[in-house]
């Protein structure tokens, strides 16, 4: 019977689950209204998880952490772990263009499933299911680093280990006066890593370069 | 015992209620973290109320309606009905400057009270209390008018009553080339009302003027 509760919840009303997995392109009833409700449910479960887990975090840190936790790329990652893609009902056009792999469609469907669980079985059941999905995202979550910009985080990473600070170097500028592109290199020595970043300002290019180094140090966020 | 449940909930833990009513200016433990949690709870209860009450509204209309329902001025109005102001703990500076009457402080405290009820008694109790507070706001709520701009709403108001359409007239322009200010008059004949609106574009000034007429017709939103 494992197939009947792929999301950690056994639906009494399978119609709700089917609707949650139906993209607008496949016709009505589709999952857009459920997504609206699921977004609010997810927001609450994420907020409470952070509130309980980080008793000393202030409101600003909690708010930034919640945005990180519920952003599209995070939800799409959870949806992939839960194998949402192959279960989606899509119209032929979306099917052809790979809609079942698209972040936005996956994350919307995940939110709709959250609402479907709530309508099927109430808040407690919904909360338990969603907390289980969020758990891997919350593991090792460092609330005070969320929302800080990449240059600051890289600097703190290095200072915390008493290593030399990064060097940034402007490699080039191009484009018209009103649409310039800057390319910056970032280098650190321990470990010896280098990256390049591009952006519409020198600062943006430096941030992109620092983010690339951070990714090498910490893995993708 | 009516004094013990001013918010439609009798707190087992009076300390939670006290914290929810304590503004940051009065020292710790204050209500900022509770406000973070309460904001998410309110968002969910409002979303579900709209989802259930407007079964044919699409996601866009629901999203706009929710924003209207949970905005600061709405929450401050609810807080005033619940007599939150006189119960607030404020620091001496905020006390002197009338902080217990300020929209932002009232709406933050209301959100914190929502979280306090949740932590005291769970989601079901919290939902019942919040729904009761929202009820007067939802009465007569016209979901398809929310989020439409003021000119459109004014036009629809008049057309729905088969009355003449408004006239807009540019009264003046001033300011530098890059910071111009436009002043526009709006006049309707049934009932005979006039208003002026100001804005950084002619359209913005017209919207402001239409909003002022709507407020005369419908009362403040």
UniProtKB/TrEMBL annotation, chains A, B:
It catalyses: Endonucleolytic cleavage to 5'-phosphomonoester. Residues 7-122 form the RNase III domain. Signal peptide: none annotated. Its EC number is 3.1.26.3. One of its GO terms (biological process) is regulation of gene expression. The keyword Magnesium applies. It comes from Luteimonas yindakuii. Belongs to the ribonuclease III family. Its cofactor is Mg(2+). GO terms for cellular component: cytoplasm. It is found in: Cytoplasm. Gene3D superfamilies: 3.30.160.20, Ribonuclease III domain. One of its GO terms (molecular function) is double-stranded RNA binding. Keywords: Cytoplasm, Endonuclease, Hydrolase, Magnesium, Metal-binding, mRNA processing, Nuclease, RNA-binding, rRNA processing, rRNA-binding, tRNA processing. Residues 149-219 form the DRBM domain. The lineage of its organism: Bacteria, Pseudomonadati, Pseudomonadota, Gammaproteobacteria, Lysobacterales. HAMAP family: RNase_III. This is Ribonuclease 3. The active site is at 39, 111. Digests double-stranded RNA. Involved in the processing of primary rRNA transcript to yield the immediate precursors to the large and small rRNAs (23S and 16S). Processes some mRNAs, and tRNAs when they are encoded in the rRNA operon. Processes pre-crRNA and tracrRNA of type II CRISPR loci if present in the organism. Homodimer. Mg(2+) binds at residues 35, 108, 111.
